[in-house]
Amino acid sequence: MADKTLLMVGTRKGLWIGTSDAAREEWEFTGPHFDMEEVYSCLVDARGDVPRLLAGASSSWLGPQVWRSDDLGASWQETPNGAVRFPEDTGATVERVWQLVPGAEPGVVYAGTEPAAVWRSTDGGETFALERALWDHPHREEWGAGFGGQAFHTLLPHPTDPQSVTAALSSGGVYQTDDGGASWEARNHGIRAEFLPEGQQYPEFGQCVHKITRHPSRPERLYLQNHGGVYRSDDEGRIWKSIGDGLPATFGFPIVVHPHEPDTIFVFPINGGDKRYPPDAKARVWRSRDAGETWEELGDGLPDGFYVAVMRDAMCADDHDRTGFYFGARNGAVWASADEGESWRQVVADLPDVMVVRAAAI
């Protein structure tokens, strides 16, 4: 049984690492690691004998790099000439690493980058190879770019089938491979692109998907937070159903599934348009225990007068038996719940703009 909790907080000006015991009441933080570098992605990979931390950091001088630590952040190693680099014939340069996730096989890690590309590592994140079929996809030249840039920000390797990966980008939509990356198909049927003209709002691709999640015990079920909409798919993205009724707003960025309950999901709704903060400026997490059929508001310990957003990767769960949930905001504060969202407490404040949080029992 794990007796410690590790929390990684990536910001626009570095990475902070928090540690606590299993009760998750008192926290100690170190940082900044990668001072003044943008950290849009990080990963606690606990599959080996020793947990490996990965961080996608981007220096304004040296560009992006995937750093790794096998001593919980006490020291960091980099890959010479960069772990993620486009082949010369593409004429492209990596600007940011937006996503780092473990694959189904030992040592496999996937990365998503800006410009929009997916990469695969077989050595625990030390080096990565471009998923060339997706980069050469005929849709790519028509993919748009959201306000955050054009990037694959969500990667969901199938938990038991190493040939299957679901990927998403803004503004391009959802793509799926079932043959180990040899081919990719768009899977956006039922997702509305509200920013397009009437009669054109359900295209094959081009939706502004903000985040997708799934539960390892039900990999065919996906949950999706869209640019104006929350959805569920029960067939791995072939058909999507709206589940946003009952929420105060259907715009938002993160969506998180409970690691032990495949029907329980969490979102953080915010206003669309120009007011990118929660309705009534109240920080609230919303939870569904029935796969999105109904929703309940969770706000015990959360502040009012909250005029910032929570970004797509800035909300997560740990894997303790009694699951903890976390979110970080653009005001540099991070909140945690040790009772599955029933109550919340601020665990760190006054950091730079939070872009990603990742937690694990170790």
From TrEMBL:
InterPro entries named among the record's database cross-references: WD40/YVTN_repeat-like_dom_sf, Xyloglucanase_GH74
Top-level taxon of origin: Bacteria
Protein name per its UniProtKB record: WD40/YVTN/BNR-like repeat-containing protein
Organism: Nocardioides hankookensis
